[in-house]
Amino acid sequence: MFGMESNRFFGRKVLVTAAATPLGRALALGLARRGADVLAIDRDMAGLSDLAWDCAGAVQTGTGDATIPEEAAVIASWIRSDHASLAGLIACPNAAGQAPSSQLLQRLTRLLRGNPDPFAGVVLPDGTAELSGLGEGHAPAEPRFGITRIILPPGSGDCDHPAMADAALRAINARAAVVHLAARRPSRRRSALNRILVRAAA
């Protein structure tokens, strides 16, 4: 579906925070379709279980709230000990709209620095939001480290999250500095199977 030569995610470990939220889930599914080894974090165990089922083993899940510093430290330790080859991070806000802890982002940034072609996508509510923990003071000095700002549209709760995730992943794959997601509403006529077929034909 996605060629290896143009697919930055294939065969690489990518962490998605708040992976049980609508956008986080869509991003995790999109990464799994692109052949990534997805690590999914959320406090919603039922949502993570559904995600793991839908990804047919392509996703490893961990329960925790990346917005709470104490839990973020545990998540960071898990990644360092079991997944030191982490290549990418997609930091999504939780269901309440809270961003991941800056402590987690700082620690994972240092880990990513040691791996080839690292990348990060940070979901932000608008274009003026700060990249807490991934700003210039914490980001690796190497120009090869790419951070893509993923700007959400206003009122994105009822949007077509799979389409938004696809746009975000395309931007990260293209090493774009910023992508403004469009607030498209999901079509009631398209089934989940149709969405997969549309992407397969793209």
Descriptors for this entry?
202 residues, alpha/beta, Rossmann fold, seven-stranded parallel β-sheet, 7 strands, 35% helix, globular, disordered C terminus
Describe this structure in words.
By secondary structure, the chain is an alpha/beta fold. It has a single domain, classed as 3-Layer(aba) Sandwich (Rossmann fold), CATH 3.40.50.720. Helix content is 35%, strand content 17%. It has 6 helices and 7 strands, in the order E-H-E-H-E-H-E-H-E-E-H-E-H. Helix 1 (22-33) packs across helix 5.
- Percent strand: 15-25%
At the fold tier of CATH, the topology name is Rossmann fold
Distance between the terminal alpha carbons, to the nearest Å?
9 Å
Count the domains: 1
Topology (SSEs and partners):
Elements: E1 13-17, H1 22-33, E2 37-42, H2 45-54, E3 59-63, H3 69-82, E4 88-91, H4 102-113, E5 119-124, E6 146-151, H5 161-173, E7 178-180, H6 192-201
Parallel strand pairs: 1-2, 1-4, 2-3, 4-5, 5-6, 6-7
Helix pairs in contact: 1-5, 3-4
